[in-house]
C-alpha cells in the first residue's frame, strides 16, 4: 500500500488506544489528524507522531458530542490534506456503578460520547468517502459489545450500539452497491490505558483493569490491519476472543463468567470516593498511552507461556510418533 498518501482521522487521540493508533499510522508515513477535547494532550501526541518518518499532523480540538465540531474536523482534514482515507471513531468515556447509583446526567453523557459521538463521526466521514468513492471507517467497540458487564451499564449499552451501527452501515452500503467503502468494528479486551482511572465511579470501590491486560499497541496494529484487509469485526486479545465465542455458543455461561470476573477482579476491595471522572471535564495534562496496568509486561509473559506450551506440545507429539514407530 502507498501509506504515505493516506490521511487518517483519529478521535480520542489524546491518549490510550487513540494515541497508539495515531502513532502506528504515523510510522507508516500517513498524515494524521488528531482530535480530542484536550489540546495540550493532542500537541504532545502530534510531537510523538512527528518522530516517525516526519509524519504530517493536524491538531483539531474536538468534543465529538458537538455535531458541528465534528463536521469542522472533517472539513479541516480535507482542507489541509485533500481527502480522508481512514476515520477511526475511538473517543469514549465510562461510568461505573450500580444501575440505580449512576447519576442520570452521567449515564446520558456516556451514551452521548460513545454513541452519538460515533454517529457524528460516521456521518462526517462517510460524506467525504462517498465523494471519493473509497475509504475505511473503523469503530472501536469492546468485548462488552458482545458480553455486557455489571457496574458499567451505560458503557455496555453504548458498545452494543456500536456493534449495531457497524452492522447496519455495512448493510446499507451493500444494498446501495457501494464497494470502495469499508466499515470495520474492532473489539478490544482489557487494554492498558488511563481509561479506568479517568472513568466516573460510584461503586465505592476502586476500579482496576480486569486481567488479562493487553497493550494499546496491540489494538493499534489491529486497526492498521483493517485498512489492509478489512473485516466486519475483529476481537483483540485471546481472552476476549474466547469470551466472544462463548457468548455465541452459551450466552448464559458467558454472562455468569463476566459477572463473576467483573465483581472479583474489575473492582478492588480498596474503597474509593464517588467521582464524575473525566466525563464532563477532560483530565488535565498531556495524556498517556499506557495506564500502568502492565499490559506490555503481561503480554510478553503470555507470549512466552504460549511459546513454551506449543514447544512442549511439539515435543510430546514427537515422542508419541517415535513410540508408535517402535524406535
Layout of helices and strands:
Blueprint lengths: L6 E5 L4 H12 L3 E6 L2 H12 L6 E5 L5 H15 L4 E4 L5 E2 L7 H29 L2 E6 L12 H23 L5 E8 L6 H4 L1 E2 L3 E3 L8 H13 L4 E4 L1 H12 L1 H16 E5 L23 H31 L2
Parallel strand pairs: 1-2, 1-4, 2-3, 4-6, 5-8, 6-7, 7-10
Antiparallel strand pairs: 9-11
Structure in words:
Helix content is 51%, strand content 15%. With 327 residues, it is α/β, with parallel strands linked by helices. Helix 1 runs parallel beside helix 2 (39-50), helix 1 packs across helix 7 (216-228) and helix 3 packs parallel to helix 4. The radius of gyration is 21 Å and the shape is globular. The N and C termini lie far apart (51 Å). Residues 296-327 have low confidence and may be disordered.
- Which ranges are low-confidence, i.e. pLDDT below 50, for 5 or more consecutive residues? 296-327
> What is the overall shape?
globular
Report Rg: 21 Å
What's the average pLDDT? 91
* Beta-strand fraction estimate: 15-25%
